[in-house]
Amino acid sequence: MHKLIFICLVLLHFSSLCQEPEISLSGLGIRPISSIHVDDGRSIVKGSIFLSDEWHESNIKMIGFDKIHQYPSKINLRSEMIHVRIRGQEYAIKPSNIEYLIDTVNARKFIYNTKIESLVETIFDKNSIFLFKKYLLRLQKGNYNPALDAGEKFDKWIQESVYFVSISGNLHEIKNKKGLNKFLKEQGFDVKNSSIPDTDNEKRLVNLLSNL
After folding, report:
1. Nearest CA-CA partner of 95 in 73, 115, 111
2. ∠ CA 92-96-117 to the nearest 5 degrees?
3. Where along the chain do its domains lie?
4. Helix %, strand %, coil % of the chain (to 5)
5. Which residues have C-beta within 8 Å of that of residue 32, sequence separation ≥ 6?
6. H-state helical runs in 19-174
7. Any residues with CB less than 8 A from the CB of 210 and at least 6 apart, and which?
8. Which end of the chain is more exposed for a tag (fewer CB within 10 A), N or C?
């Protein structure tokens, strides 16, 4: 009986040695919200500082680690931080610490692009051709006129975006419709005869890149 107990203890010892050590949250670059200054957007300003106010289940791979972590997350556009919930507590991750984040609810992939130096959404990825979308936040000031009792009384957060096309490592920034049309013409895309409405910039870009 004692021999059997001894063998079990030895096996448990070697099993514990073979297990991969658990990495602490701080070791992964995941820090409590309370330990850093992160604007939570709770003010009289209308709109949201988050890309989406909803928590979405996400697969997050940290740089330098093989394990994929599954946390509810949302992206703070003002602080440019990723908020996650772990065991009922809220934490923040710098985008530069992640290899990728996949929103499993909407099948959206986000990466930190070192050339753009920002978290971007991967819209298109094929044959070393990429289309990235960077989300921006702009504060629109209120313009209320008490004499006329007209206008907006409060400031408001406005979400905007800019596209980046990467072809063989060369990055092209597309800020507006004029820049898009210029890029499409440079790539031989017939802007005038396209069946895609010129208001759908993203669809026009994806259509072009799919045929390169």
Report:
1. 111
2. 125
3. 23-175
4. 20, 40, 40
5. 89, 90, 91, 92
6. none
7. 124, 126
8. N
